[in-house]
Amino acid sequence: MKSSGNSWILALRPKTMTAALVPVIVGTALVHTHLLPVVWWISVCAALSACFIQIGTNLVNDALDFHKGADTAERIGPQRVTQSGLLTSKQVMFGAGLCFLAATALGIPLVLHGGWPIVVIGLVSIALAYGYTGGPFPLAYKGLGELFVILFFGLVAVGGTFYLHTGFVDMTCLVAGLQVGFLATVLIAINNMRDAPQDQLVNKRTLAVRFGLNFARMEIAFFVIAPFILGFYWYANGHSSATILPFVSFLFARRVLTGVMTNEPSPIFNKFLALAAGLQMVFGLGLAVGLWMLR
Predict the structure, then answer these.
(1) Predicted structure pTM score
(2) Whether the predicted pLDDT of 162 surpasses 50
């Protein structure tokens, strides 16, 4: 039996924090690229708020997947605290509520600075963080999880960080947002491929369940490769460093692709999930450094 503190760390899923932090880092670098001043308190508040939304999403997912039968003793993914009895669903949902409250509190100075667009982004982000697993139309159970991640952990997070600093968005936000969002989506796509046999039993209609494992492999390959291809946008616009530096992550990309292409869903996919998190972090940092060097 794990201690309560260790159980909460397990429930928070700290390895998933790359999905929240990388887009804020990249969005901040984009501000510098445009020869505009970086306001560091904005980036810090945005990063912390994104982390709390990510953690809240994880906690809701932990509690509700258990109640819906998606997490059972036969689960081959990482241990979930509700299913294993380390924490009660009431405790986990209360923790999620606290995280969403913290995200809201951190968002207040951002709203005062950025106005109503930030109100809309914040409210929709928190609502869909719960709606990812809960509510009358749970996104994860309808095959919309990938779209949610691309939008909110890519386009919205990068574009929102940039907008808070500048008051506008442009094409660079779209390209960088897609690069970051696609790599965040690799994590959920691997997760869904690993869990497809169990998800099918409880009618959790992820894309891997709807279209099969070969589709899931092709989906993962697309989301891994596309960010590198999109990187040539920077090269075409005279910014070669933002194209070249992310390639330091290519070893991670190759190992992820080799793993999912040659293995059936099994516990080894937990290793590929960790590699995918490393891919997003190293690629994102390479992109951010490359963008920062453009000035």
Answers:
(1) 0.92
(2) yes
Give exposure, 4-31, as e/b (b: 16+ Cβ within 10 Å): eeebbebbbbebbbbbbbbbbbbbbbbb
Q: Which domain holds residue 58?
A: 4-292
pLDDT of residue 276: 95
Q: How many domains does the chain have?
A: 1
Model confidence pLDDT, tens digit, residues 238-285: 889 999 999 999 999 999 999 999 999 888 999 999 999 999 999 999
**pLDDT score, position 1:** 46
Residue 295 pLDDT: 56
